[in-house]
Amino acid sequence: MKKLYYSIGEVSDITSVEAHVLRYWETVFKDLHPKKNKAGNRVYKEEDIEVVLKLKELIQDKKYSTEGARQVLEGDGEEQDKEIPISLKKDLKEIRLFLSKLADKL
Known about the structure:
CATH architecture: Orthogonal Bundle
Keywords: DNA-binding
Radius of gyration: 14 Å
Organism: Halalkalibaculum roseum
Structural class: mainly alpha
Strand content: under 5%
Strand order of the largest sheet: 1-2
Number of domains: 1
Pfam family, one: MerR_1
CATH topology: Multidrug-efflux Transporter Regulator, Chain: A, Domain 2
Protein name: MerR family transcriptional regulator
CATH class: Mainly Alpha
InterPro entries: DNA-bd_dom_put_sf, MerR-type_HTH_dom, MerR_fam
Largest sheet: 2 strands, antiparallel
């Protein structure tokens, strides 16, 4: 289930964040920097997906502004809430997506 690289579509499915939002966040947050392959397509690593999930939590769930989320990511903000690690949330979302697709095939 673990992969070295994920496409923007796969990241969008895993995180429930639209592709255009991912591209925008890439321009705003220096911590989000997916590489591009020879064809020019973005390829995300595990660390990039963890950043996306953290941004989603801050911006969409906790209603931070992009500037506030940037400060939290850079350590200047006050967000120190560590209830569930982001990597675990990512793994759980991937499993949920896999099971959903499996259930659709049944």
